Amino acid sequence: MALNFEQEEIITSAVFKGRIGDLLSFDFHTIVDDFFGGFWGISRGLLLSILFAGLLGILWRLIPNLPLFAFEWVFGTLPIWLPVVSVIGGWKAWIWYTRASFIAGLDNMLLEVKFPRDIVKSPRAMEEVLTKLWTDSGETTFFNRVFQGQARPWFSLEMASFGGEVHFYIWCRREWREVVESAMYAQYPEVELTEAEDYASKFAYDPDVHECFCTDWRYEPRNDAYQFRSYIDFELDTDPKEEYKVDPLAQVIERLSSIKPEEQMWMQIIITQCSDQRRKKGTLFGTESRYIGLLKDEIEKIRKEAAGGEGAAMPSEAWRRGARVPQFRQSEQVKAIDRNMGKLPFNVGARGVYIAPPDTFSSASYTGIRWIWRPIANPQWGNQMRPRRWHNPFDYPWQDLWDMRWITMAQRFFDCYRRRAHFYTPWVLPHNMMSVEALATLWHPPSSAITSPGLERIPAKKAEPPPNLPK
Hints:
- By secondary structure, the chain is α+β, with helices and mostly antiparallel strands.
- The protein folds into three domains: 2-81, no CATH class; 107-276 and 341-458, Vanillyl-alcohol Oxidase, Chain A, domain 3; 278-337, no CATH class.
- It has 15 helices and twelve strands.
- β7 (277-279) and β8 form a beta hairpin.
- α6 (124-131) packs across α15.
């Protein structure tokens, strides 16, 4: 008991010191998000509303007839700000209208992917499939983007479990069906792709019948240059024998197949070509790929640290500057970042939901979906898929006294999931940049080493007529 008490004291004091450090950092975002948000459960919106109300009260005391003064000030400066606001607002409204009109006219479909038992290819084959989906088709020119509202294609790689029956899906535009099928059949000729009914569209969320926990997954604790453990770290690229394979998807599929008959788990990985740009350093108007630029910056930072440069050692530890041998961590970081620099990047949004009746819903159950990507996590010197957004911020009773926000978040999540929306209106959400290597780790045909009972397999061989029959 003494040991437990000591451990509890250590944890409590460490948390307290960490929060005091957040408060004394004098960084606005750290104070708002970590101290007030993480420690007290006060949202950014509520805190800013309180600050605004306080400042408004102070101004009301200092300025007599504040409403009249504000009206005169706004009306007097009208010729200055109205043209600017009108142009910017009109431009944004036009972009929103054309983009929404284009998206509303799209014909989308859901393809179910069925696998045989004898899949032996490594996820490297899935990399080749995904490279075919890296395209900016439809938004090549300014006219396409602005006046026609076109957007480059986005796809959704999905896994869903209905009472323990695990299904794999690919969501795409109907006109892209042949592209998706040819890419899959080229690398996995034994799989089956069939059009399926959209399980998300036919599901009707009723808070009286369904309890759910909704989450997104974001890269943390580092930026997008650092990756989680990919299939290469599990040595699947060397094509080991089936009995020696350690597939990171094994635990994911096993968790999906272990839920109760009345429960459901959905997972969605939405991808599109990464074309994010940033200002090129040393130039006024030049731009460069944000993904490549970020990777180069991080490699340079790690090399400086390894060589005893900026941030490597305190003046009292100057002897470390002579230790030129990089640490194992630094070597692995540079190796992974450099390897991914040569691979195609995608913008990625990942989300999932656990659905159950109220009598079986519990924190132990939804923890399985929150941390389902734990097998590939490397928070020590890489990254992990950490649960964020939606239902994750609700830790304290005063954040949602009557479950109003919880239900609203669930309704918004299901609308977002149903639309497969992440990058365009009506749901524009934060995304990560990932290489095809990372995506192939998250979603690939499960090998025969995965024997989860909920994963249905199709026969490996199918009878086909000889190709040389006379017509």
